[in-house]
Amino acid sequence: MSRERYAAIDAFLVDALVGDDPALTAALEANARAGLPSIDVAPNQGKLLHLLARVSGAQRILELGTLGGYSTIWLARALPAGGALVTVEADPRHAEVARDNLSRAGVDALVDLRVGPGLEVLPALAAESPEPFDLIFVDADKASTADYVRWALDLGRPGALLIVDNVVRGGAIIDEGDPGPSVAGIRRFFALAAAEPRLDATAIQTVGLKGHDGFALAIIGRA
Ligand code: SAH
Ligand code: DHB
Ligand code: MG
Ligand 2: residues within 6 Å at CB? Predict the structure, then answer.
């Protein structure tokens, strides 16, 4: 099936089940105006994140890779009163756009946006001994995905839900030859998930508006 047809089917699904939300649409428009890459999760994926956060009763969410805050808004809207979301973004320009989008969506009071490379922000966060997180969404630089998942093992509570975006990369994860740093990072994540007794995981392919990729889902357990 063609990429166009997958995208048209995604458009149908979004129209049928997700609908149009002014703050989310405004966020995507602001991202485009600011020249951010349109690599946010698709609307139906954003709603999947939202539903997973609600069904798991998440009160504390950690996100790696904010971009303009599109996925952040979906996740923050799933939080109950008193909930909190920490999101980490390396690019200050992206973070600035995200701040505006989060406040326009009315979720800024719930969101703690930390600007810096994930592998610097996470040790600093861990040093604060935060309350454990119930849901962790890893969607930053793919080269560091396995490292972020190692941090998730420390920062997530037993039973926490781990979601990892971009684990298929158009199928590049099974291709031979030089994988490049992103695919190599994703492969390290799969090796970690297979070897780590605290991770019980699966992955599904995603197609549609954002091309062919995948989400991995895992429960973080006790060792
Ligand atoms: N979760 C977003 C999309 C994130 S795109 C959404 O669905 O709406 C990936 C983001 O990770 C980009 O904004 C990029 O700047 C950021 N990023 C890249 N390297 C990073 C790093 N080392 N630490 C934290 N964020 C990083
Ligand atoms: C790309 C897609 C993503 O969902 C992401 O988080 C980062 C990069 C990409 O297609 O380049
Ligand atoms: Mg992504």
Answer: 39, 65, 139, 165-166
